[in-house]
Amino acid sequence: DVLYEVVGGRILEKPVGARQSVIAAILSQILGTFVRSNRLGRVVPELLCRIDSRKNLQRRPDVAFISNSRYSIRRQVPNVAVWDLIPDLAIEVVSPSNSAYEVQEKIQEYFAAGVTEVWIIYPEQRQLQRLTSPTRIEVIQAGEDLEGGPLLPGFRMRLAELFEDDPE
């Protein structure tokens, strides 16, 4: 029952802290409700995706959004352990154990695979970095609103909602 990713054919355990899990769950609930009510696609926590079969690369974003155009909500989700599907949006919540190298490596891999956007959440800094390419970064602070942009039109939330249980 351990969460893992596969990098270069090697199984790597994916440790997840309680705080990071709660933040991912809050975002998954808020984003999932919006996406579902607007029939935009699916929001899935901890989905293991095969993002590069040539490199035997399987990543598990903390939260993933799969648009209706990429995989119709009218289609049944396959009953598989690893989904051969690239999410439109990959969201990672950074733990103290994550190195800058690991975070950058995932960002590069996601974009190389065809992910449209990557959101990196830094709980300690109470900030989110929205990447629309490996070099285009928008930084959103806890006191600001996170908007969905072209990928999630009409979505808006106060970033502080992710940290609602955190003392200021």
Main traits of this protein?
single chain; about 170 residues; alpha+beta; six-stranded mixed sheet; 12 strands
Explain this structure to me?
This protein is an alpha+beta fold. Helices cover 20% and strands 33% of the residues. It has helices at 18-37, 100-113; strands at residues 4-7, 10-13, 41-45, 49-52, 57-59, 63-67, 89-93, 117-122, 127-133, 136-141, 145-147, 156-158. A hairpin with a 4-residue loop joins strand 8 and strand 9. The radius of gyration is 15 Å and the shape is globular. The model has no long low-confidence stretch (mean pLDDT 91).
The strand count comes to 12
Query: How do the helices and strands follow one another from N- to C-terminus?
Result: EEHEEEEEHEEEEE
User: How many helices in DSSP terms?
Assistant: 2
- Give the class from helix and strand content and strand pairing: alpha+beta
Radius of gyration: 15 Å
Helix content: 10-25%
Strand sequence of the main sheet, in spatial order? 3-6-7-8-9-10
- Give a quick account of the main beta sheet: strands, pairing sense, barrel closure: 6 strands, mixed
Approximately what portion of the residues adopt beta-strand conformation?
A: 25-35%
**Whole-number average pLDDT?**
91
Question: Uncertain regions: pLDDT < 50 for 5+ in a row?
Answer: none
Q: What is the first-to-last residue Cα distance?
A: 34 Å
The coarse overall form would be: globular
